From TrEMBL:
Spans traversing the lipid bilayer: none
Protein name as it appears in the record: IS605 OrfB family transposase
Signal sequence coordinates: none
Domain Probable transposase IS891/IS1136/IS1341: start-end pairs: 19-133
Protein family per UniProt: In the N-terminal section; belongs to the transposase 2 family.
Keywords: DNA recombination, DNA-binding, Transposition
Annotated ranges, domain Cas12f1-like TNB: 145-213
Gene Ontology MF annotations: DNA binding
One GO term of the biological process aspect: DNA recombination
InterPro entries xref list: Cas12f1-like_TNB, RNA-guided_DNA_endo/Transpos, Transposase
Amino acid sequence: KIKTVTISKNPANKYFVSVLFEYDNQVQEITPNKIVGLDFSMHELFVSSNGISPQYPRFYRQSLQKLAKEQRKLSLCKKGSNNRQKQRKRVALLHEKIANQRKDFQHKRSYWLADSYDAVCIEDLNMQSMAKSLKFGKSVADNGWGMFVSMLKYKLEERGKKLVKINKFYPSSQICHVCGYKNSDTKDLAIRQWECPECKSQHDRDINAAINIREEGRRILSA
């Protein structure tokens, strides 16, 4: 059933039609070995609980030099002139290209996850707070995690599958997934590898966190 139809125009003067509709969907039974945890990665988008990362290209950063050049040209154009209008469109088209590259990459990875797993577990992160950080501003803008989560959510839901969000304060990076020991030293983001003082297990920071996110997701699903 169609609910709404929206027509919009972007800065590059392209028109789009969005259709919102309702449909019946069956909830799929979750198979325990088809649950995966994803740890957010600033540079790789995510690292999964089975050690997979998508090798995320940094589209925005790759285009910064060209974007700055086109924006300088725009600033030199006389206001109200035809040349300014043309240059404004060139800048808008470059921004659109970067956005489309990011969307294409994220669509492909979210399709793969939704097809491969019955439930995907992630941390419920506040990306706006991270984007405001001087240290992470451009990296968060280039990462697009929020858009990726939205894509993943609707793809899972249309298949009758689940996206499980873990409390953002859950110490996924501090807990040894083997014995449960909590290592507060790993609050330091510079620590990428660590040994559990209790059971001597060796950990990759991101993979260990993703495994803990998966296990916390399993606990939530079974509650």
